[in-house]
Amino acid sequence: MNKLTKALVDFSFFLDESKKYNTVKSFTKKVLEDYNYKYSRYFNYFMVFLIVSSVIIIIDEVKHPLEHWIIFYDLYIVTGFFIVEYILRVWVYNDIHKIIIEEFQNSLFLDKRFETLKVAKEIISKKIEYIISPLAIIDLLAILPSFRELRILRIFVLFRAFKLLRYSNYMTHFMKILISKKSELFMIIFIFIFLIFISGVSIYVFEEHINPNIKTIYDAFYWSLITITSVGYGDIVPVSNEGRSIAAVIVFVGIGLIALSTSIIVSAFNEKNEELRSEKIKSLINRFSNYYLICGYSHLAELLAARLKKAGDNFIIIDNDAQKVDQAITDGYLGFKADASSKNVLIDLQVSKKAMAVITLAQDDIQNIFISLSVRSLSKDVMLISRMRRKYSYKKLKLAGVDKIISAANMASMLVGTLVDKPLATEAINSILSGKRNARCEQVEIFADFSIVGKTIKDVDIASYRLILLGVSRKINAKREFIFNPKDDFKLKEGDILVLLGYSISIANFKNIMKKSSIKHARNKR
């Protein structure tokens, strides 16, 4: 290995190990390519402003002379940003140093010579792969209108308008959908071109000497194009029997090809529908400060979703059954098809950062166990609630890290037993749980700046708010314990959760008073 190659390999390892370099490149790539990234949205708005302003300047220049500062703005600022953006996109497309490191490792382990030429070819081919992509070509051509000395280049102002496609998430998805069907679409385009050529030559041969509107082969191709696409302006009409026969054939073929093209695009949208939906969900998650994740759209999930929606809470439903997801969307909820036990799905949903609770309500206990294990592998703190159908699953769900286990069968049997012995008590419980007569059971967390911190139950006088205190949940030795009907001298602390029973208006009033005391405390502290 010569000195130059050795220096190149050393520099590649330096870049690979450099946290600063990798952080900068990762940040740049997110800004340029990740539409869900906060700073990417700001960058996109800025670039859209530059594009629109530059297009307006070039259009205005056609009839009016420009001020010196406007020319400076368009030539140096707009074009400068376009050039820098183009270079950065080429840079982040792939990692050159990783190609060099991979070849070095292969040469080391396989005991062979480091092939510099092979590495150079691979690096160049990777960069060219990006440079010849449609969006990269648009980026490059969008720079050309700035060179005013060559007026012909101003036609490329169209590419500045096309450049707007890059900064629209929906348009980018549309382009990706078209690219996914590029082989089928190229085939149809080829057939269109072939038919235009054949029919154009045919109509030229039959009509050139008798049709005054067809003087050149270009006229014939023009007629063929507007006929096969079923536009038919009527400016050129065949006059011979042969020409009319050709027109009839290509009209039918053209309609068929247009219908085929439409079906291909529609099928591509259907295939990518779930991907588009998941992208929308990810975008919404970035806006949510927190949310509930419901895994599995069962009957219990329907009831829970209705309750969360009524309370105004953010929640997302995921299920691996497309029909259930469609039903959730029909019911007016956010949902998409995904495997909730997949770590990648949970990472994309930012479960460890934003999920207030993950509720697994799948019909199968095994599926709930797998989902619980995946959630716990990512976060030990997120609240995990799971449904249980069979008694022997209880221990497995607990080992999977589930905090609360719901057994519909046990709850139903307890309710039936209570209904037989104490029907009035059962009616009262049902009224509270269903929200009838505005009766509610609510939990209120106590924060550090609440006025009731440090006060006893007697001092707070919950009854004066027309509420009943059922109990207090307190963290003791890293575990929460519920203290039912605490004594009057029980002191409230930060982090305690009050479980209150009362009318909706009374609970709302109590929460409002606590918020006001929090604001007052913050002002006094300031």
Characterization of this structure:
It is a single chain. The chain has 526 residues and is of the alpha/beta class. The chain folds into four domains: 165 residues, no CATH class; 90 residues, Orthogonal Bundle (Helix Hairpins); 123 residues, NAD(P)-binding Rossmann-like Domain (Rossmann fold, 3-Layer(aba) Sandwich); 90 residues, Alpha-Beta Plaits (2-Layer Sandwich). The protein has 22 helices and ten strands. It has a six-stranded parallel β-sheet, with helices on both faces. Helix 17 links the parallel strand 4 and strand 5. Helix 9 crosses helix 12. The longest helix has 47 residues. 19% of the residues are buried. The mean pLDDT is 81.
Mean pLDDT: 81
Report how far the terminal alpha carbons are from each other: 67 Å
Task: State the strand order across the main sheet.
Answer: 3-2-1-4-5-6
Task: Work out the count of structural domains.
Answer: 4
List keywords for this structure.
22 helices, six-stranded parallel sheet, 526 residues, four-stranded antiparallel sheet, Helix Hairpins, single chain, Rossmann fold, alpha/beta, extended
Summed up:
The protein is 62% helix and 11% strand.
